[in-house]
Every structure is written in structure tokens, then in C-alpha cells.
Amino acid sequence: MSLTDILSPSDIAAALRDCQAPDSFSPKKFFQISGMSKKSSSQLKEIFRILDNDQSGFIEEDELKYFLQRFECGARVLTTSETKTFLAAADHDGDGKIGAEGINLFIHRIRLLRMCCNDV
């Protein structure tokens, strides 16, 4: 299975276009534009499995910097600042890596923000 089996190729392209410039990546915005914030828990787990390059069950900081390239091989690498911000937002237990449950919790927080604050 590939990411385009779960996410629309046009939504992925739009999300990547939105963060082309260094230090412009926002995980919240990327998840919204790509459509990830609208996916079910099981779909998010499958997306996580695809993004977990070494299949360790976690996305570590070294893998996270290549996050955009998992969506398109020619995409840029996240900056150190973007990587650390993303890790801090999705690492729910502070162990320095993101598990599938961390992504689910992060997406859940995005959904709650959208519902209570009409944040698009």
C-alpha cells in the first residue's frame, strides 16, 4: 500500500507546495491540507506504518527530518527547527520518538481545535 492509496495525490501535492520554503512546515497545517486530519485511526496507523521507514514501530528524529520526502522523493528535508517542533508536538510520552499513538493523539488535538475554534 502507498500513501496515495489513502490520501489524494492532489491533496499531498498541495500540502507539499504549502511548505516548500525552509522553516515553513507546520505539522498541523500539513495534516489538514493533506487530508490526514480527516482519516480514521486505522488509516492513520497505516499512514504511520508507511512513514516509519525502518519499520521499528516509531519515527525517530533522524527519520522525521525526511518526513516530506516520504510523500514525494523530491521534497525538501525538514530543518532542524521544524524537526524538533514536530517531534515535540507528536511525542506524547517524551521518549524522543513518535509512536503510532502519538500521531493519533496529535491528529485528535487538531480535530478538537478545528471543532472548538473553527481553525482551518
Automatic annotation (TrEMBL):
<feature type="binding site">
    <location>
        <position position="58"/>
    </location>
    <ligand>
        <name>Ca(2+) 1</name>
    </ligand>
</feature>
<dbReference type="GO" id="GO:0005509">
    <property type="term" value="F:calcium ion binding"/>
</dbReference>
<protein>
    <recommendedName>
        <fullName>Parvalbumin</fullName>
    </recommendedName>
</protein>
<comment type="function">
    <text>In muscle, parvalbumin is thought to be involved in relaxation after contraction. It binds two calcium ions.</text>
</comment>
<feature type="domain" description="EF-hand">
    <location>
        <begin position="39"/>
        <end position="74"/>
    </location>
</feature>
<feature type="binding site">
    <location>
        <position position="63"/>
    </location>
    <ligand>
        <name>Ca(2+) 1</name>
    </ligand>
</feature>
<dbReference type="InterPro" id="IPR008080">
    <property type="entry name" value="Parvalbumin"/>
</dbReference>
<keyword id="KW-0479">Metal-binding</keyword>
<dbReference type="InterPro" id="IPR011992">
    <property type="entry name" value="EF-hand-dom_pair"/>
</dbReference>
<dbReference type="InterPro" id="IPR018247">
    <property type="entry name" value="EF_Hand_1_Ca_BS"/>
</dbReference>
<keyword id="KW-0677">Repeat</keyword>
<feature type="binding site">
    <location>
        <position position="91"/>
    </location>
    <ligand>
        <name>Ca(2+) 2</name>
    </ligand>
</feature>
<dbReference type="InterPro" id="IPR002048">
    <property type="entry name" value="EF_hand_dom"/>
</dbReference>
<feature type="binding site">
    <location>
        <position position="52"/>
    </location>
    <ligand>
        <name>Ca(2+) 1</name>
    </ligand>
</feature>
<dbReference type="GO" id="GO:0005737">
    <property type="term" value="C:cytoplasm"/>
</dbReference>
<feature type="binding site">
    <location>
        <position position="54"/>
    </location>
    <ligand>
        <name>Ca(2+) 1</name>
    </ligand>
</feature>
<feature type="binding site">
    <location>
        <position position="56"/>
    </location>
    <ligand>
        <name>Ca(2+) 1</name>
    </ligand>
</feature>
<comment type="similarity">
    <text>Belongs to the parvalbumin family.</text>
</comment>
<dbReference type="Pfam" id="PF13499">
    <property type="entry name" value="EF-hand_7"/>
</dbReference>
<keyword id="KW-0106">Calcium</keyword>
<feature type="binding site">
    <location>
        <position position="97"/>
    </location>
    <ligand>
        <name>Ca(2+) 2</name>
    </ligand>
</feature>
<feature type="binding site">
    <location>
        <position position="93"/>
    </location>
    <ligand>
        <name>Ca(2+) 2</name>
    </ligand>
</feature>
<feature type="binding site">
    <location>
        <position position="95"/>
    </location>
    <ligand>
        <name>Ca(2+) 2</name>
    </ligand>
</feature>
